[in-house]
C-alpha cells in the first residue's frame, strides 16, 4: 500500500487488505528491508482497495456498508506458489486470484470515488508485494530465496480496514467474509 513509488503515506489514508499471516515467515525479512509498507506496520497482505476513503469519511455507516459488501463474499483458500513482477516490484501471486478480484470490484463499484490505486492501472492484479523500487539483480536474489520457501497456503476469511496515523498503519476494523 503506497501512494507512489516513494513509499510515503499520509495521516488519514485508509486501505482495505487481506492479511496473509501464513506468508509472514517466508517474506518478513525481505519485506522489512524492501517494502516501505512493512516498515510502516502493514503485515503481509493482498490489497483489496487502496487508497480507500479518507479516515474522516469512515464512520459507523461506512463500516456497516463495507461489512455488508464484504459479507456477501464467501471465505476461500488461497495458495502462493510462484512470484510475479511489475517494473521494480516482486510479488507473490495468489491462486486463485478471482476471489480477490471480486472483492476489489465489489468495493470499487460501491465507492466509485475510490478506484483501486487511484485509477492508475487499467487492470488490478492481486498480489502480495515483497520488494519494490529494486533493480532486477536484487529481485532475482529475493525470488530465488522465496522459491525455496513456497508454497504457502491459508484460508481467507476477513478483510481489514487499515488506517495510517501519520507514522504507522493500524488495523481499525476487521470485516468477515461469509
Can you describe this structure?
The chain has five helices and eight strands; from the N terminus they run βααβαββαβαβββ. The protein has 178 residues and is of the alpha+beta class. The two termini are 25 Å apart. Strand 3 and strand 4 form a beta hairpin. The strands form two sheets. The chain has a four-stranded antiparallel β-sheet. Strands 5-4-3-6 form a four-stranded antiparallel β-sheet. The chain has helices at 24-34, 36-39, 60-71, 98-110, 136-149; strands at 14-19, 45-49, 76-86, 89-95, 128-132, 152-156, 158-164, 169-176. The model has no long low-confidence stretch (mean pLDDT 95). 38% of the residues are buried. It is 30% helix and 30% strand.
Secondary structure topology:
Layout: E1 14-19, H1 24-34, H2 36-39, E2 45-49, H3 60-71, E3 76-86, E4 89-95, H4 98-110, E5 128-132, H5 136-149, E6 152-156, E7 158-164, E8 169-176
Antiparallel strand pairs: 1-2, 1-7, 3-4, 3-6, 4-5, 7-8
Can you summarize this structure?
The protein is of the alpha+beta class and 178 residues long.
Main traits of this protein?
alpha+beta, 5 helices, 4-stranded antiparallel beta sheet, globular, 178 residues, single chain
What's the alpha carbon Rg, rounded to whole Å? 15 Å
Query: How would you describe the shape?
Result: globular
SSE arrangement, N to C: EHHEHEEHEHEEE
Q: Which blocks of ≥5 consecutive residues have pLDDT under 50?
A: none
Average of per-residue pLDDT values? 95
Number of H/I helices:
5
Q: How many angstroms separate the termini?
A: 25 Å
Characterize the quaternary organization of these chains.
single chain
Number of strands: 8
